[in-house]
User: Fold this.
Amino acid sequence: MIKRGIGRQIVLHYFIVVFVTLFMVEVIFSLAIRMYYYDTIKNHMYVHSTWASDYFQKFVRLNAERDPDYFTEMLRTFELDNTELLILNNKGEVQASSSGFQADKAIQTSDVPQAAAGNVGTWIGRQTSTGETVMAVSTPLQVRGETRYIVRYLTSLESVNSKLMNLTLVSVGVAGAVLALVTLFSIGLANSIVKPINNIRAVSAQMAKGKFDVRIKGNYKYELGELAATLNYMAQEIVRSNQIKDDFISSISHELRTPLTGIKGWSETLKLGGFDPEETELGMGIIAKETDRLIGLVEEMLDFSKLQQNEMKLVITVVNLKEILQETMLNVWAKAEQKGIQIKLDDHIERGIYVNGDGNRLKQVFLNLVDNAIKFSAENSWIHFVIKQQSDTQVLVEVVDSGIGISHEHLNKVKDRFFQVNHQGGGTGLGLAISQQLVELHHGQMDIHSELGVGTTVSVMLPIHEIKDEGEVSSPDG
Assistant:
């Protein structure tokens, strides 16, 4: 007994389809073979009845109808084996019979009235006297266009029906064997599908319980193979995501501990008092700097949370993209000067170019990109902002650096949340993930191209609102 499930459904569907098909074939075969045998018998009797009619016409022309041996001669000449030949008048009364049987009343089966009307009549039915199934073929014998007599052949169909029954039983047996083979085949097919599904289900249940180190084993084909590969990939990604999350927690704990330690140390030190104004100012400056650093970390995590929950609200205005880039450069100028890094704007557009967007959020994107470029660039290197119009509807901004670059292994992961190429570099690993989503909210696209030891280029494609004269400039805040 097959357990309830997809295996039973497969076997049941195969069984029903094959059973219905075989049943229809069986019915059609039985009807066709029966019709073939019956038509053969009917045609055989019809041919002989036609000959009898021709014989009768010859005797009419010779005026031999008055011969008392006329019917006897016809019976002897046209008699068939296992078939009774009757000569009837046009009322159905028996005039002569090859079996010597004389009916006490006229025969009125459907073939006789048809023959009396001048047509060839056929009747299949059960003989009242014997209970046998018989076939009768009646042909008119006409004199000057008028039916005078009827020649009627009558034969039993019991032998034929018995042969037909045997053929039917054989065909039913063959159909049963075919149905059994198909059922066995469908059971094997169902097992070949159900066993992998059960294996996948068992491993998935373990994954659901948090055991992401398990994998689906087996070389499955087609959709099952794709499903197994997808689940294995999902488990691998969950493991990687958990590892990234753990690294993030470790990193953010370190990032939070460092400024908090500085704030706590200097606040306790200043609390003791007795310091000169310069020392007090130094301590307060460190506390303010570390506080700003904490605020930046918290705001970055809040921004990411809002983006994940689709709660980020943009204040959309028409903003001058070149002005945003210039302000970004001014904001990071001091930080770049500390490492001797030169920042330059390569402007390939003579007039202002405008986009629909939130000026502050776009500025956040470019600040994050150039901050990463400064962080991972060597001293006395360079960073270029490149802005150029790609088409009538798009503008391209590139942040190009000559820093350490990103390996091919890490390039596809740098925009993932919490991912950090260098965990010692600080940060939350959310900057590029946030920038990516902010660019997408502006209906743009961000791509990263990098070569290890050569440098990195981050491309931001944004839709253009309008190109105006240089005098028509609006602020990034709208």
